[in-house]
Amino acid sequence: PSCLVRSSLHRSLFFSYKMTSLREVRASVSVQEPEALRASALDLLVTRRQQQPSAAIITTTVDSTPPGRVTDDPSLKSTWAHRAWVACGCASVLATLAKSGIAAHGDATWVECLLAGGLGYLAADLGSGVYHWAIDNYGDAGTPFFGPQIEAFQGHHRWPWTITRREFANNLQALARATAFLLLPVDLLPGEPGLHAFAGTFLGCLMFSQQFHAWSHGTKSRLPPAVVALQDAGLLVPRAMHMAHHRPPYNNNYCIVSGVWNRLLDEAKVFQALEMLVFFRFGVRPRCWSEPTLEWTEEVDDRLPS
Length: 306
Fold this sequence. Notes:
Elements: H1 2-31, H2 37-51, H3 80-103, H4 106-137, H5 147-158, H6 168-187, H7 193-216, H8 225-233, H9 239-245, H10 262-267, H11 270-282
Helix pairs in contact: 1-2, 3-6, 3-7, 4-7, 6-7
C-alpha cells in the first residue's frame, strides 16, 4: 500500500509540474513580442526542467561548432587541386580577353569590345543575383551537382564571417572550374572580338564574385584600400548593401558582383514574382517564405573586430 501511495503521489506531482509549466509558458506568451516567443518559452521550460528534483534527465548535445573556430580547419584551406583549377580559370579568362584584343582592329572595333565588356560586367552582376537567389531558396545538400554549393550557402547564412577566413583558391575553385570548361568552346570560335570581350568579362566577374562577396563581409580597416575605394564607388558590391541580405527577411540584395541590379530587382519584386511562378507551377515554396530557422540565424564570432 505504501508503494501505491508513493506512486500515486509521484504521478500527481508530475502532472502538477507539467500543468504549471504550461500555464507559465502561456502567461509568458501573452506578454512577449512575437519575435521573442520561442526564445522566452524555451528558456522558461529549460529553467523549470533544471529546478525539477528529479530522476533521470536525458540530454542531447548537438555539435554546432562552426568552421573556423577549430584551429587550422581544413575545410577553409586551399589544396593544390583548388589552386590548379583557379589557375586554369584565370588562364581561360585571360586567353579569351587576349583573343578579343588581338582580333580587334580599328577604333570602331575597340569601342565594340569595351561596350561588350561593360555588358558582360553588368550581366555578371545580374547572373550572380539569380544564381544566389536560386541556391538560397531551393534544393538541399542532396540536390544533384548543386548540393554542395547549396549546403555551403546555408552554412554561410548561419556563420557569414567564415567566408573571410576561407583561403582564396578554396573560395574560388568551384566557379573557376566551371569558367574553364565554359570558356573552352568560346576560345575555339573564330575571332569575334565583341563576343570574346563579353564572354571573358562575364565569366571572369562571375568567377571572382565569391572574392567580391568575401570582401563585402570584411571590415574596412582590414581590407586593401583599393578594394574599399571600389566598394565605395559601387564598382564592387558595397559592404552595407550586402549586410542587408543577412538580415530578415533574407529575400533581397542577392547580387554580389557590383550590386548595381539590387535596387531595381528588389523594388520591382522580380524575385517574388519568380517565387510565385515556381510555387504555382511546381508547388515548391522558397525558404524565404518560412520563419527563419537556425540555419538562417547569424552567429557572430566575438573574436572578429567590428
